[in-house]
Design brief:
Layout (H helix, E strand, L loop, with lengths): L3 E7 L16 E2 L2 E2 H10 L6 E6 L4 H7 L9 E2 L4 H12 L6 E6 L7 H10 L5 E7 L4 E4 L3 E5 L5 E3 L3 E4 H10 L8 H7 L4 E5 L10 H14 L2 E14 L3 E4 L2 E4 L3 E2 L7 H13 L5 H4 L13 H13 L3 E10 L9 H12 L6 E6 L5 H4 L3 E12 L1
Helix pairs in contact: 3-5, 5-6, 8-10
Bound molecules: magnesium ion.
Amino acid sequence: MARCAVLILAGGSGSRVGSDIPKQYLPLGGSPVILRTVTAFLTHPSVDSVRVVIGPDDLARYSSALSAASLPAPVTGGASRQESGLHGLEALEEDAPDYVLIHDAARPFVDRATIDRVISALESHSAVLPAVPVADTLKRGGAVVEATVDRQDLWRAQTPQGFRFAEILAAHRNAVGLELTDDTAVAEHAGMAVALVPGNEDNFKITTREDLDRAERICGRMTGETRIGTGFDVHAFGDGDRVILCGIEIAHHRGLEGHSDADVALHAITDALLGAIAEGDIGSHFPPSDPQWRGVASHVFLEHAAGLIADRDGTIGNIDLTIICEAPKIGPHRDAMRTSLAEILAIDIARISVKATTTEKLGFTGRSEGIAAQAAVTVRLP
Ligand code: MG
């Protein structure tokens, strides 16, 4: 797999929105614009790292807006977008990725499908531009129209613009002092062919007060639907010296029986996520009769369910898991389990609860015949 880094350019001062605060730090539907933008990439499975390039006076704003995200230190930008892009690329050079996506902080509605298209096209191209066709008739003129411009073959450029890292870094170094308005212009100047892929009309750049209002309306739409899902699973004890719960190995005098690694906790959560989007259950996606799932680590199932949610541009609101058994003791492993879930799902640990209970020696869990798990989740869909 190619290593893919993302640079978020957040150096703009945003004077056209009519606020003293740069637009990328303004609240949008309750979260700073830049947090939404960064999260869109942090939760993408093909993205390995995200780095933000900020204005010289914005460190306090950056720290406050992104306190919930775990990111490497921001890079200080330059006097122009082009200079900021170069600073960002140079900061990545020490641990150079194969691909870099360069994105405007003020485009918070970048969608997963656009990111996928840009990354896929980088397999066969050095530079990739997501763009949308021009729908309006175009005129050239001042006080009066001088000409109608043929809009055939005209595109509106968006971001993330994708590049093979070494090539765009070299192109930027050769373009110092020019005044180019985006990174594909830098690539074009260097003679790189830039592939066009479809962008998305919602992936617009917040520039004016009208844009901010439109963004608020989209957020209203996005938070319009919350889904709830529940899941339940049981695995019986068998021979073994450990159990696996939430991907964490716990020493125990017995193991759990099952076709996969028998991670009853991940199975319950997977079913809850699938349930929230009415996508059947774990058995319909990964039939136990199929030998390819024998012994498989159950995070594969969970990642699949999370991927189906992300494909719909949905997000996981929270997870509440209860593990039911007499032994082993869950408490000492609770935080490791929450961390494991947060890493598998790329969501904040504060959204993940792991609880445990016994059944007071009653029933099959009380007789220590197995472990049960139940999960409830919320999923937000656009
Ligand atoms: Mg199971």
